[in-house]
Design goal:
Elements: E1 6-14, E2 19-21, H1 22-28, H2 33-40, E3 44-46, H3 53-68, E4 77-81, H4 92-99, E5 108-112, H5 118-131, E6 137-145, H6 155-158, E7 163-172, E8 181-182, E9 185-186, E10 194-196, E11 200-202, H7 204-226, E12 235-238, H8 243-252, H9 264-267, H10 274-285, E13 291-298, E14 302-309
Parallel strand pairs: 4-5, 4-6, 12-13
Antiparallel strand pairs: 1-7, 2-3, 6-7, 8-14, 9-14, 10-11, 13-14
Helix pairs in contact: 1-2, 3-4, 7-8
The protein binds oxa(dethia)-CoA.
Residues 31, 35-36, 39-40, 116, 155-156, 159, 202, 204-205, 207-208, 211, 241-242, 269, 298 line the site of oxa(dethia)-CoA.
């Protein structure tokens, strides 16, 4: 079978400017900064006031294009991971195509729902489509307006989430060293442990147990597929749900916590946006080529693990 060798050509990110602190929450519900910080590691989150997931996705895409000087006319595939679109159709990807002025091009554009694992799922879909040689350049985005689906009466879930978007543009690489590997999967939650109907409902402890169980397993599976060890990985980019979850994974894998990138203190859990947004933040400070391991988990339940050169 043909190897999937993929290169990330550009990354972009966007977070709305309005910040909501833990103290802001304690003014509207029975909670406090100390509880939120010690149970989750979150101090602040950014909240969209007049923007939709589409608006944020567009800002992130534009950021990727402008920062890298990428020729947007090369894009022939747009995949957006989101569970918070303001309309059911057109997809966010369709709207991005129009707003980027690419309606005259024959582009395939669609959204996917794999909750917080969405970006890693979208990356596998886009990589596979590029590997068929039918597509040359994919814009892959994770964008979430979580504050639009929060139950503002539920202190256990409301404090966790924030709004943001992250984007990556990928192309095929002729270097075999750029081969990408995935270990994505799902375990159907038909009992309502983590549902959005229409607001977020969650049995937090159950989700926590799922996360700390699946993350080390998915990491070891994707490493096995790539025939690598964790020592071959330069940077680990985990889904930003809870500091304690990441701490538990680090302990399980006998790794220092510093090996795991984090920005949840500032942005909270931004669902499908968390991995690409953090990836872009990292690339802004670190231009050199690195081998990254992306690891996400979320509603569905779903998980996504990828090894990719960034
Ligand atoms: O992207 C995937 C999305 N979801 C997740 O990643 C969530 C995974 N789960 C978690 O991160 C944790 O389970 C939470 C942070 C949601 C909750 O932490 P916990 O340590 O599991 O707390 P708990 O739900 O067992 O609640 C402990 C206590 C309870 O009070 P009692 O019954 O012991 O008196 C809660 O009512 O903390 C109380 N509590 C709060 N207190 C102050 C729950 N939420 C709050 C709050 N402020 N915001």
């Amino acid at each position: 079978m043909k190897k999937m060798a993929i290169k990330i050509k550009a990354t972009g990110g966007y977070a709305p400017s309005k910040i909501m602190t833990n103290d802001d929450f304690s003014k509207i519900m029975d909670t406090n900064d100390e509880w939120i910080r010690t149970r989750t590691g979150i101090k602040r989150r950014h909240i969209a006031e007049n923007e939709t997931s589409f608006d944020m996705a567009y800002h992130a895409a534009l950021d990727a294009i402008t920062k890298s000087g990428y020729d947007k006319n090369k894009i022939d595939l747009i995949v957006v991971a989101s569970i918070t679109s303001h309309v059911k159709t057109p997809s966010i990807a369709n709207l991005i195509q129009a707003k980027l002025g690419l309606n005259d091009k024959n582009i395939v554009a669609f959204d996917i729902n794999a909750a917080c694992s969405g970006f890693v799922y979208a990356l596998e879909i886009a990589s596979s489509m590029i590997a068929t040689n039918n597509y040359k350049s994919a814009l892959v985005i994770g964008s979430e307006h979580m504050s639009s689906i929060i139950d503002w009466e539920d202190r256990q879930t409301a404090i966790l989430f924030g709004d943001a978007a992250g984007a990556a543009i990928i192309e095929a690489s002729d270097n075999e060293k750029d081969e990408v590997f995935f270990y994505n999967g799902s375990r159907g939650d038909d009992t309502g442990i983590l549902w959005i109907d229409p607001k977020v409902k969650m049995a937090g402890r159950e989700v926590y147990k799922f996360a700390v169980d699946i993350m080390p397993k998915a990491i070891s599976k994707v490493l096995e597929k790539a025939n690598l060890t964790i020592n071959d990985i330069d940077v680990i980019i985990p889904h930003q749900a809870n500091y304690r979850i990441i701490q538990s994974v680090a302990k399980d894998m006998e790794l220092p916590i510093e090996r795991f990138l984090m920005n949840l203190e500032e942005y909270g859990n931004t669902s499908a946006a968390s991995i690409p947004f953090l990836l872009d933040e990292h690339k802004t400070h670190n231009k050199k080529s690195q081998k990254a391991l992306l690891i996400g988990f979320g509603g569905g339940f779903t998980w996504g693990a990828a090894i990719i050169n960034i």
